[in-house]
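User: Design a sequence. Structure:
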C-alpha cells in the first residue's frame, strides 16, 4: 500500500493523548478541550489523516476516558484504535508503538495537543524517516531573548523583562519559556511574566 505519494512506505500513526489537562482547569482531559467546536483530538487526528494514508492508527487515552475518546474520533475513521495510555508521554508512546500492526516501516508519533501541523510537514517527516531511519520536525523561533548571569544561575525574570521593555508594536503575542527550571538570579519571573500582559507558556 502507498502511504505517501510516490513511495511504498507503510506508515502508522501513534497519538499520545493521555494528558489529564489539570493545568488547563477545564475538568476534562486536555485532548478533549474544545477547538473551534470540535474536540482538539479530533482536529489533530483529522489533519494527520488528511496528510498521509496511515495503515494503522493508535490513540493513547486516559484509561478512565476510553469511551469518550472513541466517541470523539468515531466520525473520522472506524479503524482508529483507542487504547489506555501510560502515566507519562514516554510510556504512552511505548504502549502505542508496541500495539502497531506487523510490517510497519515508519511509526509517526504526534501529540494530540499539536493540532496545527501542516500536511506537508507530516509527509516530509515520514519520507525522511523512511530514508534515514528516523526524523523529527522543528521550526525556528521568530524571536528569542536571553539574560546573561553568573555561572550556575538563571535570570529568567530578566529575560522576560527585556521583552516588556520593547515598544508595544515590537512585543510578542505570546512567549514560550525554555529553562532548566532553576531560577536563582535577577528579577522575579512570575512578576515579569504578568507585566508582559501576554500568554507565557512553560
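Assistant: Done.
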Amino acid at each position: 500500500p502507498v502511504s505517501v505519494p510516490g513511495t511504498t512506505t507503510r506508515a502508522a500513526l501513534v497519538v499520545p493523548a493521555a494528558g489529564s489537562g489539570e493545568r488547563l482547569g477545564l475538568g476534562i482531559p486536555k485532548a478533549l478541550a474544545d477547538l473551534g467546536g470540535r474536540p482538539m483530538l479530533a482536529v489533530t487526528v483529522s489533519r494527520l489523516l488528511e496528510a498521509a494514508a496511515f495503515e494503522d492508527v493508535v490513540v493513547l487515552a486516559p484509561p478512565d476516558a476510553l469511551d469518550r475518546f472513541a466517541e470523539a474520533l468515531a466520525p473520522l475513521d472506524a479503524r482508529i484504535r483507542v487504547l489506555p495510555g501510560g502515566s507519562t508521554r514516554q510510556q504512552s508512546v511505548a504502549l502505542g508503538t508496541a500495539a502497531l500492526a506487523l510490517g510497519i516501516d515508519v511509526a509517526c508519533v504526534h501529540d494530540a495537543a499539536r493540532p496545527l501541523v501542516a500536511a506537508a510537514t507530516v509527509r516530509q517527516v515520514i519520507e525522511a524517516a523512511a530514508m534515514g531511519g528516523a526524523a523529527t520536525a522543528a521550526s525556528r523561533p521568530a524571536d528569542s531573548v536571553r539574560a546573561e548571569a553568573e555561572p550556575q544561575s538563571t535570570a529568567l525574570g530578566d529575560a522576560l523583562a527585556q521583552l516588556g521593555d520593547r515598544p508595544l508594536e515590537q512585543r510578542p503575542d505570546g512567549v514560550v519559556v525554555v529553562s532548566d527550571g532553576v531560577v536563582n538570579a535577577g528579577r522575579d519571573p512570575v512578576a515579569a511574566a504578568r507585566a508582559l500582559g501576554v500568554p507565557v507558556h512553560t
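The CA atoms of residues 57 and 79 lie 7 Å apart. The chain has a mean pLDDT of 83.
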